[in-house]
Amino acid sequence: MAKSPATPEQLEADYGPHLNYTPEGGWSKESRTTPDRLVKTHCCFCGQQCGIQLKVSQNQVIGFEPWEEFPFNRGMLCPKGVKRYLQANHQDRLLSPLVRTSGGFAKASWEEALSLTVRRLREIQERYGKDSVAVFGGASLTTEKAYLMGKFARLAVGTRHIDYNGRLCMVSAGTAYKLAFDVDRSPIPWSEIPKAQVLFVIGANIGECAPITTDYIWRCRDNGGKLILADPRMTPISRNADLFLPLRPGTDLALLSGMLHVVLRDNLQDDAFIEQHTSGFEAVKASVARFDPRTAGEMTGVPPEAIEKAAHWFAKADRAIAMHARGLEHQSKGVENCSALINLTLATGHVGREGCGCTMITGQGNGQGGREHGQKCDQLPGQRSLLDPQAREHVARVWGITPDELPQPGYTAQEIMNAIHAGEIKALFSICFNPLVSLPEADFTREALEKLEFFAVTDIFLSETAHHADVVLAGSLQEEEEGVTCSAEGRVIHIQQAVDPPGDARRDSEIICDLARRLGKGQFFPFTTPREIFDELREASRGGHADYYGITYEKIDAQMGVFWPCPTLDHPGTPNLLLGGVSFFPDGKCRFQLAEWRESGDPVNEAFPLYLTTGRVVSQYLSGTQTRRIGALVDIYPEPLAELHPRLAEQYGIADKDWVTVTSRRSEITLRASVVRTIRPDTVFVPYHWAGRKSANMLTHRTLDPRSKIPEFKVSACRIQRASGPIEGERD
Amino acid sequence: MHGYEFYVDPSRCIGCQACVKACEECETHRGQSMINFDFIDRAETIATAAYVCWHCDEPTCAQVCPADAIKQDEDGVVHSALKSRCIACSNCVLACPFGIPKIVPKYEQMMKCDMCYDRTSVGKRPMCATVCPSQALAYVKTEDIAARREKPSNIFYFGNQKITTQVYMMTPPDTDSVTLDITAFMWEQTHAGR
Fold it and tell me: For chain A, what is the domain count?
């Protein structure tokens, strides 16, 4: 049913991606120097959520001006932030709803598109049951929208299957932090980073994926701090690493267990902290006994002496911080990896004091706020559990329903796609998610999308996933609707509406509320402004760990952000979550978690002897739905390359810029090679932001971490071969 | 200017090119970036360097210009060649020891970093140094730069040519000047007395 209605060429001609290089009206338009107003808001892209001022003239975003007073980034921006304004007034922008016809997509009225959507959802639910419809949300949505999606799925659609693209981001870290501290947020604000004497960064390409954090790290080094960096690739910040640990993909747990082994062997643990503030230490101690430096060295490919040195530096420092991102988290043992890092931090007593802690570097724009208020399949607002009777009762009361009317937890994102493929889920309503590019095993995702009996997408541009839609609802850009997000450091910030949506495009929350009314649940969705949604969210989150009750738009503006929890209106917010080493559990203890070794779900063998690891480049964001349309960004890194070490390249007769076919157990892609001495010779790296026959996720596999259900993007097995050119039909 | 100085530290550069892209947003040269950016040798290293014009106290580019098109203003900022005078001969391009000036063919004019004169002359910080996420390009007060582990220097030797500049290079703490020619390390040269 949901096959693409036109050829890729025709869809590209109509909907892009086309490249925009110049601001609205051209470079010399006089209004650029004299905009009507400067709107203090935030970047729409990654979890750094940098402060930025948008130049607005005649209801159009025409440029930017740095916002130097905002404390997190003090005016700093990466190239994505600098050029983000070029997504406004873009020729590819969806200006009205679209409905699939036999000859392609046709423009439709809102009445036509929404009534068709409601009719099809109802028909399918009547025929196959409530849970035959799934809802996908996204972590680029404001927190108000994310909250609304959870409520919309459970109350208006009445399905238990709602999940979001944050499932592909860092849910393993969130799960591990919940297990250890009973709260899912960075325990520290970034202002702690420069105070550390040792920074241990593992699996985080900070220079490219969290660029502003680089300045915090360099300032730490200015203060005399040492940087330990563990990664299969020398990423940009490796240039100033004091100790570099080039570990094999997927062996982080062995490295971390080896470091903890050395700490305990050399009696460098903080016994007083362990005694007073933790539980579960003895079992963890026993579990790392076998990870002597030599064993850990053999498993990771890191010299045993380097493992010892890293352990000594980290443990002996009075103040040390461990930081991680997707490298540690995107594994089928992602929770174990993060738990091992937390264990190391707890054992050395680096929790709850100045310049100390462990922290996850949230990647998606609202990756933090988007995972707090009910957009996850098992979650209610305030980071509450959908299984907790008290939480159900509280939220049901705020929503004016009985707890029984709340569905039980549903499937996670990949499980939803699996269930679509299996025919169990028949219809999908998706917003702000491009699974064809971002989920593993793209051919499987495509097959699943083609099986849908009905597929509705809300988006700003026609993503590759939206090619399969029956109805496309033209939604809003970040700068077109007010709201809040929560940044990587846990700071709730205020997104301002700078302009109105163009053409017939509508604000996302209006679309969702309109649909809810048409589904007969309008009484639960009376909202006319994001502020009204936020006020309900504050009540719904009240008393939960992610308590927003005391946060208002005005307070955010006055304080330049408010860190949650913020339980009362006169509460200043909570930048440091674990002060004094006290967790969110009732007993206040931090919990060591057993982190046991497991092989990758896609092991290397003779047929597939190399590791494939995927990641990002600084100039692109996520599945590229926005950034692949901005010419100035595309120019920096126009298409995916396969990074290879010269030793590996030579073995296969591949020179720099040659074509190379990378084959996994799923599929193959053919790309140009980038032969660089900065990657392990047993590893191939491909960035993932692109669709089609060069898409890295053609190769990745669907093995999930059993608890968090995060896919293993960072470890696949592959083989390579020199190719004479791109595969047929692909451009150079 | 206004108590701020410009500092360049390639050792902090992460190659993101925010500076290159932000430079295009400057109002005096809209859409044209004046940043010099290099991947030093991508095959061998992730090292990158972004730099602006050093704004020499005695600019070689202006000295060699046959059309007298390159002007230094009262703040010491060396500007792009005057459109009405520039003959696009490339003398400046060849003579600049730092390799900064570029002929922009579509304008038949030498264009270069003017330290965001439209901004810095009115007390704003230049685009590149304001946005730079790693502060490899920094436009800050002297006391702020003193907190760094590297030390600023604005004295450069190119063989026997000594150049002093408005813009500072961050150097290892025990270095007073930046020497970019092997001859400076040769006994004959040092013995001859720099």
Answer: 4
Q: For residue B194, name the pLDDT band (cuts at 50, 70, 90).
A: very low
Binary contact (A214, B130; C-beta < 8 A): no
User: How many contacts (CB atoms, under 8 Å) link A and B?
Assistant: 115
Q: What is the pLDDT of residues A556-566, one digit of tens each?
A: 999 999 999 99
Q: Which of A305, A325, A360 is the last residue of a domain?
A: A360
pLDDT, tens digit, 9 for 90 and up, residues A264-278: 999 999 999 999 999
Same domain, A666 and A697: yes
Provide, as residue numbers in chain A, all residues whose Cβ is less than 8 Å from the Cβ of B42: 674, 676
On whether residue A592 sits in a domain, the answer given is no
pLDDT at position B177: 77
- The ipTM value here is 0.94
Residue A431 has pLDDT above 60, yes or no: yes
User: Which domain does A259 fall in, by range?
Assistant: 171-360
Same domain, A627 and A675: yes
Identify residues of B whose CB sits under 8 angstroms from chain A CBs.
Answer: 11-18, 20-22, 24-25, 27, 30-31, 42-48, 125, 127, 130-135, 147-149
The answer to the question of residue A47 being in a domain is yes
The CATH code of domain B58-112 reads: 3.30.70.20
Residue B22 to residue A82, Cβ atoms within 8 A: yes
Per-residue pLDDT reduced to its tens digit, B70-100: 999 999 999 999 999 999 999 999 999 999 9
Q: Domain check: are A346 and A469 in the same one?
A: no
> What pLDDT was estimated at residue A435?
98
| Stretch A687-704: mean pLDDT | 97
Cross-chain CB nearest to B21 (options A32, A66, A83) = A83
The CATH number of the domain holding residue A49 is: 3.30.200.210
Label the pairing between strands A562-563 and A243-245: unpaired
| Domain's final residue, options A360, A384, A412 | A360
* Dihedral angle sign, alpha carbons of residues A557, A559, A561, A566: negative
- Which of B7, B16, B45, B149 to probe the A interface (max A CBs under 10 A)? B16
Contact B133 A33 (CB under 8 A): no
Mean pLDDT score of chain A: 96
**Whole-number pLDDT of residue A728:** 73
pLDDT of A235 over the 50 cut: yes
Contacts of B22 in chain A (CB under 8 A): 77, 79, 82
Q: In this structure, what token pair is assigned to residue A632? A: 């100035």
Tell if the CB–CB gap between A32 and B133 is shorter than 8 Å: no
A678·B46 Cβ contact <8 A: yes
Chain B contact set for A675 (CB, 8 A)? 43
